[in-house]
Amino acid sequence: MGYKQVAVLVAGSWGTALARVLADNGHTVKLWTRSANQAEEINGQRRNTKFLPEAELPEGIIATTDMKDAVSSAEAVLFVAPSSAMRDVARQAALYLHKDALIIHATKGFEPDSLKRMSTVLAEELGRSEHQIVVLSGPSHAEEVVIRQPTTVVVASQETACAEAAQDLFMNEEYFRVYTNPDFIGVETAGAIKNIIALGAGLTDGLGFGDNAKAALITRGLAEIARLGAAMGANPLTFAGLAGVGDLIATCTSKHSRNWRAGSMLAQGLPLEVVLQRMGMVVEGVRTTKSAHMLASRYGVEMPITNQLYAVLFDGRSPELAVGALMGRVKKNEIEEVADASRDKWLRGQPGV
């Protein structure tokens, strides 16, 4: 089935960049925003200066503040709302959503209070099976995608037809390559928790540490992501792919990363409230640190980097003390720590194992 009418909710940086991909692929895109001024700017000036000031947007993107206008004729709906707002946006969209519309989301985070993944939130509000919802993730900065820099992502769903439909929707031979993956739990978990590690990378850079420290942080951070993901039902192999190590590298090493910038400012001694105010955009890693801290306790998974970042963000611990606590942990065997009980838990749940 071809999808000509696509709705994108909402008009932040990532939603706008993905709307550009869809418009380049020949789809008519309704880009929903709560802001009348933003809609007027996009439609009149072909700009979204708050989020992507350098990009000129194609005519195929039509901004609207009317949810019914955005969704009612859409054959595919892409949700890119912040994790804290996803349920509210989905609840509004559900009033007008076509029963056969393809549902995709590209938000990297957990619902703050319930700790639910975004596909679970969407399934509850839209009356869909969670297995049919598609997750789009991977190493993909909006600032690069919107100017057509080569990018490769993954779309995940347990329903192969849904994943392949989303792959066809976004695939652009010039600059946007899309792979499929059946492990939507792993792809969602990796995309959310890598933001925590990016905060840590910004912190270490802000403290003046070098590449050795960052490489160690990324590597051990990946181990934390894999441990929690496997405990939640993900395939550990997912974390070696685009949604795992790929996204982690991009987010921990790029000037475009909001989470990296926030971590760097924290290392300079700025209070969290000031950092968030200066950022002016959602920093998902802050919320996700709190969620992952709680999930680690729920699943009995050791996440020392996450725990130290939680202490910095919410308990007033200095970044220097947090680094010292990580360096002073008891001696470990690397291989045994990676292949811990959470991996065994995933294996026990697989048929034939």
UniProtKB/TrEMBL annotation:
Residues 5-162 form the Glycerol-3-phosphate dehydrogenase NAD-dependent N-terminal domain. This is Glycerol-3-phosphate dehydrogenase [NAD(P)+]. NCBIfam families: PRK00094.1-2, PRK00094.1-3, PRK00094.1-4. NADPH binds at residues 13-14, 34, 108, 142, 258, 282, 284. The lineage of its organism: Bacteria, Bacillati, Bacillota, Bacilli, Bacillales. Sn-glycerol 3-phosphate binds at residues 108, 138, 140, 194, 247, 257-259. It comes from Cohnella kolymensis. PANTHER family: GLYCEROL-3-PHOSPHATE DEHYDROGENASE, GLYCEROL-3-PHOSPHATE DEHYDROGENASE [NAD(+)] 2, CHLOROPLASTIC. HAMAP family: NAD_Glyc3P_dehydrog. Catalyzes the reduction of the glycolytic intermediate dihydroxyacetone phosphate (DHAP) to sn-glycerol 3-phosphate (G3P), the key precursor for phospholipid synthesis. The keyword Lipid metabolism applies.
